[in-house]
């Protein structure tokens, strides 16, 4: 197996360089970078370097970058994946550019009009759930959300071994009549086509692990994701401030140190791999802009599992029936 890694795009690319230099597993990593970055990477077995001369920036037009910057790390990586030189792509660069370029270069599964973005999120239990779409498409149709549900169901089943994963539609109320026209139409479509559809779910319930796949349009999903991330960060800061107030609170912190560590680990996004672009013909993983060595490691493990299970072939089968 060959995994492509874009060395550019994240806040601290030294994290990617350190990960590559410290990686010991016998899986070939193909790294795409500028000359000064590649010089920092040690030569060894199961490692290949691809020299590029351009970089995709956040301000670049996502819809045109694949034509205007053909020698950018992200674009070269996706072109190599299209030509079967690598099996999975990993990038921390512009989400819009990665999605648009992935769509133009890798292509989409037939019958999927708009590929989406999906990620695993923690719950109050030891289980995780898949949330999609996360912002790939802020305007969607009911048919798009149905495709996301089908693709998400396949992901949970084969990546996490969950038979008959429970699917819910994120809405402003649990009643079938709640929401705007999109969500009312989607509810009907889900009920007609998804055997494991459990109905609507409110955002306050999604961390309780009552469902395995939660579906939303890209605008809603992105807002919910960033709210969860923000609350987790703010709550961590609040707890830290509480326990550092005085000597008594500091002693109390020592008594609950294990619990605090477990809490922090549960909401540590780095252990959940990256967000996957669902609906494309080939697997592409988007890592967080603030990714560290740990999160890159889990994204690589995610890529290996996707390849091992032939996940994207199964996604194609469920959508096209072929």
Using brief descriptors, characterize the structure shown.
322 residues; alpha/beta; Isopropylmalate Dehydrogenase; 2 domains; eleven-stranded mixed β-sheet; 12 helices; 16% strand; globular
Q: Which SSEs are present, and which pair or pack?
A:
Elements: E1 2-6, H1 14-22, E2 28-33, H2 35-38, E3 47-51, H3 65-68, H4 73-82, E4 88-91, H5 95-106, E5 116-122, E6 128-132, H6 142-160, E7 167-170, H7 181-193, E8 197-201, E9 213-215, H8 218-243, H9 247-255, H10 257-266, E10 275-278, E11 284-286, H11 293-308, H12 311-320
Parallel strand pairs: 1-2, 1-4, 2-3, 4-11, 6-9, 7-8, 7-9
Antiparallel strand pairs: 5-6, 5-10, 10-11
Helix pairs in contact: 1-11, 4-5, 6-7, 6-12
What does this structure look like?
This protein has 322 residues and is of the alpha/beta class. The protein has twelve helices and eleven strands. Strands 3-2-1-4-11-10-5-6-9-7-8 form an eleven-stranded mixed sheet, with helices on both faces.
* Text of the CATH class of the largest domain: Alpha Beta
User: How far is the first residue's CA from the last residue's CA?
Assistant: 25 Å
Radius of gyration: 20 Å
Tell me how many strands there are: 11
Q: Which CATH architecture of the largest domain is right?
A: 3-Layer(aba) Sandwich
The rough form would be described as: globular
CATH homologous superfamily caption of the largest domain: Isopropylmalate Dehydrogenase
Assembly state (oligomeric): single chain
Arithmetic mean of pLDDT: 90
